[in-house]
Amino acid sequence: MAGFGGQGLMFLGKLTVQTMMDEGMHVTYFPSYGAEVRGGTANCHVIVSSDEIASPVVEMADTLVVMNQPSYERFKTRLSPDGALLANVSLIELTDPPPAEYILEIPATRIATDLGDVRCANMTMMGAYNQMRSFVPIEKLIEQMKRAFGEGKSAIWDLNAKALEVGRDLAREQLAASSQSSTT
Amino acid sequence: MSANKILMTGNEAIGEAAIRAGVDAYFGYPITPQNELTAYMSHRMLEEGRVFIQSESELAAINMVLGAAVSGKRAMTSSSSPGISLKQEGISYLAAMELPAVIANIVRGGPGLGNIAPAQSDYWQGTRGGGHGDYRTICLGPSTVQECVDLVYLAFDLSDKYRTPAVILADGRLGQMMEPVTFDHLGPPSPPEKPWALTGAKGREQQSIKSLFLDPDVLEELNLRLARTYEKIEQNEVRWDTLQMDDAEVCIVAYGTSARVSKEAMRRARDEGIKVGLIRPISLWPYPYEPIRQAAEKVQFFLVPEMSMGQMIEDVRLAVEGKRPVYHTGRVGGNVSNPKEILDAIRDCCEKV
């Protein structure tokens, strides 16, 4: 997962591992740190596994969530050819796309802006990501999101829940379309 | 999985474990990649009504630890490589004064100011004393965030028991990564009585603790007493883990993050039919020489993946005593081998033997 510092990718990574830990899975979260988070791109490696996790660093990703152009350029070569690319196409032009089983084009920044706050773009991606990987029912994800934000930010719960749902719906549509085109 | 698991970075987990172990005072000075530990302590210690001081320098921090330890309190500091170098004078004094203390080193690339990326290049410093004089420090090397918790808790007990400083040697990757941890199994802290502590001489004889002994016979007595302590530690406190050593023809010896990466390389090697086993030292000093010595009777060779140009490999060679080849592999300067690189090294070594 990668994006500009401030786009909430680290939060998204933590939300994923928290959610899947509670589902009984082994999880690791490994952030980029230090000078790198100022300017350029911030990224984190997330591993969810039914087995013990040896290394927390992802060599070849089965899912790549990218929020901006530099992240896309930097990490697209590390997507496994049978993996899934989830790209924030509001800010990314998918030039020379990597070989991938699925490419989900989520205009997360535009959707978030339309919903009323650009800061929920990450939750739009989270909704799509959760749908792509069939992690948990959306109700559970919304519960986890609320817990992660805490009572102090209950004012933004509904907005972020909505963002999760829109992301889920978009992913569902695009996945259905791609399975249709592959069967015909 | 238990319901009481929480997600924490290695840095935060070390801090919380210290609190569970009853640390009375934490003194630190910021440095990446261990900053989350100092930041965590800055609020948690105050919540617990204990002492937190962000000192003006590393030297100040370690000497504050010495001051707290001399009064019988459980004290801790943490830093990363260049900062730990600065603390070495104080650690030598702690050893000489037979004072318990826990020092966490979240190792980064060196030498010099190096960089902020993970490394294992402080192994010699952690296991050979680090400062001047004839002394050792207990040195524990976690490889998971949970083990950070367990070994910090243990470090306080061992340090008190043997009245010697204990070092936690974890690399920057462990400090930064998040994993589920539990604290449920840790009992309440049980520090021993410390009749030697300087608490004011009211109602008892005056006593002193110092590290200056101008008479060689007196200093020799201290050195011999320390040596006896170290011998006891070597007898009682060796810890290690093994994985698939029963049928192993190749033995990897690795600790910390290198051990994690090695496990994945090992799995892939076994898929190819190469019988690889792992010995993972947990206590880096005292070192688990014996299981490696035993392995030397049956494996063809040893491979030591390290995030250094080869430091722990010297301990492996001491254990193997020339009976089998011992090879090094690894990346340095803040880089970390991936499983494929270690797998390639296994294959290369198989060709050589």
Proportion of β residues of chain B?
15-25%
Q: In which order are the strands of the major sheet of chain B placed?
A: 3-2-4-5-7-6-12
Give the N-terminus to C-terminus distance of chain A in angstroms: 32 Å
Using only C-alpha atoms, the radius of gyration of chain A works out to 15 Å
Main sheet summary of chain A = 3 strands, antiparallel
Shape of chain A: globular
* Element-level helix/strand string of chain B: EHEHEHEHEHEHEHEHEEHEEHEHEH
Say which CATH homologous superfamily of chain A is assigned.
Pyruvate-ferredoxin oxidoreductase, PFOR, domain III
The beta-strand count of chain A equals: 6
Shape of chain B: globular
Secondary-structure element order of chain A, N to C? EHEEEHEEHHHH
Q: In the CATH hierarchy, what is the architecture of chain A at level 2? A: 3-Layer(aba) Sandwich
Overview of this protein structure:
- The complex is a heterodimer of chains A (184) and B (353).
- Chain A has helices at residues 9-22, 69-75, 108-115, 121-133, 138-149, 157-183; strands at residues 2-4, 26-31, 41-49, 61-66, 79-88, 102-106.
- Chain A is an alpha/beta fold and 184 residues long.
- Chain A has a single domain (2-183), classed as Pyruvate-ferredoxin Oxidoreductase, domain 3 (3-Layer(aba) Sandwich), CATH 3.40.920.
- In chain A, 44% of the residues lie in helices and 21% in strands.
- Chain B contains twelve helices and 14 strands.
- Chain B folds into two domains: 6-189 and 213-236, Thiamin diphosphate (ThDP)-binding fold, Pyr/PP domains (Rossmann fold), CATH 3.40.50.970; 241-352, Rossmann fold, CATH 3.40.50.
- In chain B, strand 6, helix 6 (145-162) and strand 7 (165-171) form a beta-alpha-beta unit.
- In chain B, 42% of the residues lie in helices and 18% in strands.
- Chains A and B meet through helix 1 and strand 2 of A and strand 8 and helix 9 of B.
